[in-house]
Amino acid sequence: MNRSSNESNMMENECIHIDSYLNSIERVSAPPFLFTRIREQLANYVEKVPGVYVWIGGVSLCVLLLFNFMLVLKTGIGRSVDERHVFANSIGYSSDNNLYR
Amino acid sequence: MSLEQLYELHKDMVYNLSLNYLQNHEDAQEITQDVFVAVFRSMDKFRNESSVSTWIYRITINKCLDHIKASKRKKRLSFFTSIFGGDVEENTFRVFDHPGVQLEQKQAMERLFRCINELPEKQKTALLLSKTENLSQSEIAEVMGVSVKAVESLIQRAKSNLSEILKKNEG
Fold first, then answer.
1. Percent of chain B, pLDDT > 70?
2. Residue A6 domain-assigned?
3. Which of B14, B27, B62, B113 could form a disulfide with B22 if both were Cys (CB 3.0 to 4.6 A apart)?
4. CB nearest A42 (choices: B40, B109, B132)
5. CB nearest to B11's CB, from A15, A30, A45
6. Closest Cα to residue B155, out of B120, B115, B106?
7. Domain limits at A75?
8. ipTM reported for the complex, 2 dp
9. Phi, psi at residue B14, to the nearest 5°?
10. Would an 8 Å CB–CB cutoff place B94 in contact with chain A?
11. Is A43 a domain residue?
């Protein structure tokens, strides 16, 4: 019982000590040049694009790229070349690009 | 109220709170500048639900917390940079430089603030607003957006944690 009351007394003393230290801090004035700097910063302020919009833009671009990729895979570039060959042969043209063999 | 009037009324409040929060006058200047730029740019968003000074206090605390987080990130980065032999930025490690502290108390204050900096964010904020800004518990509650009871317990816990940290650091 005595020990715990001693401890609480010590803590109280320490708190008073802390309070007196913190109260002894003097208030200082802000440097006079700050307002000029703030004015300059305000004049040169460039509106930043909010992070959410950047994310939305990035995700939309990724979706668009993925969609394009899927479309290319689905339609198939090679198959369309084959179809051209078949069409050219059916009307009697050569589908070969080489002029001389 | 013009911007200049608003600045004149609140500049010392912002500067002193930043000083007590960061204990470095260059950082405090940077924060004061950022706070007023933010205030001037978002004046139209200010709703008269709280007083202007409460609103500015809130912005200052948020800016200080962001600054602390950014400097912790910088420290971590500079640690890795130094491991890989890169150049560490000069202003990564700020020293205790508080113009409001008397010279004969500087060492003791530096030790006290080092312990205060170990407190959780909310406890540190409540303690500083109460002891250095001399705000009442209801004013602190308004600034921090919590109840008066919560402020009371935050200050109590801050004090007991602080004396424990001080004891631990002494031993």
1. 92
2. yes
3. B27
4. B40
5. A30
6. B120
7. 2-25+48-90
8. 0.75
9. -65, -45
10. no
11. no
Contacts of A28 in chain B (CB under 8 A): 12, 15-16, 19, 99-100
CA distance B118 to B168: 12
Residue A101 inside a domain? The answer is no
* Average pLDDT of the residues of chain B: 88
Q: How many independent structural domains does chain A possess? A: 1
pLDDT digits (tens, 9 = 90+) for B87-116: 655 555 578 888 988 888 888 899 899 999
* Length in residues, chain A: 101
Kindly list the structural domains of chain B, giving each domain's residue range(s) and its CATH number in brackets, ordered by start.
1-97 (1.10.1740.10), 101-171 (1.10.10.10)
